[in-house]
Amino acid sequence: MSLIDDLEADAKTVLAAIANVFTSVKAKLVSFLTKGASAVATSIAKQLPQAEADIEGFVEQAAMDAVSAAEAAGGSGTAKMAAALASLASSLTTKGITLAENELRLLIENALLAFKAAQASSGSGTSAPPAPAAA
Fold first, then answer.
1. What is the pTM of this model?
2. Which of 55, 67, 129, 132 is the most exposed place for a label (fewest CB within 10 A)?
3. Domain ranges within the chain, ordered by starting residue
4. Which residues neighbour 66 within 8 Å (Cβ) at sequence distance 6 or greater?
């Protein structure tokens, strides 16, 4: 063998060793990230039902509060809806929740139904809306 052949063989050996190191590091990194991601995903999955219930309760209460405030302020139906929309959108935005206007209107209409049902059951026109049912 010539010197060039020896150098070429040595270079191939070194390159193979480097490739093995990178393959090993890659495998360990993938394993670490997979285990870490799995732990995070498991933790999130455990928290989701409670977080979903918390968010749902917050959204329902925000809608009830918006309706109650709009009813207390008075005015035309259009004015009350505008006030409730602005109030609800503002409340939700503070929690990073953005909904389309039609979704906000649906929440307000549902809260308004509960508000009117509470008024009818109490026999007065000044009843506050009931708190949303716990999930």
1. 0.57
2. 55
3. 3-122
4. 83, 84, 85, 87, 88, 91, 108, 111
Q: What is the DSSP secondary-structure string of 10-47?
A: HHHHHHHHHHHHHHHHHHHHHHHHHHHHHHHHHHHHHH
Under a CB-based contact definition with an 8 Å cutoff, are residues 85 and 105 in contact?
A: yes
CA 45 vs. chain centroid, Å, equals: 13
Rounded CA separation 42/97 (Å) = 24
Using a 10 angstrom Cβ sphere, with 0-12 exposed, 13-18 middle and 19 or more buried, the burial of residue 23 is exposed
| pLDDT for the residue numbered 99 | 87
Q: What one-letter code names the amino acid at 130?
A: P
Copy the structure tokens of residue 44.
């999130």
CA 51 to the chain's CA centroid:
8
Asked whether the predicted pLDDT for residue 24 surpasses 70, the reply is: yes
Dump pLDDT digits (tens) for 6-23: 888 877 888 888 877 778
Between CA 108 and CA 50, with CA 99 as vertex, the angle to 5 degrees is 85
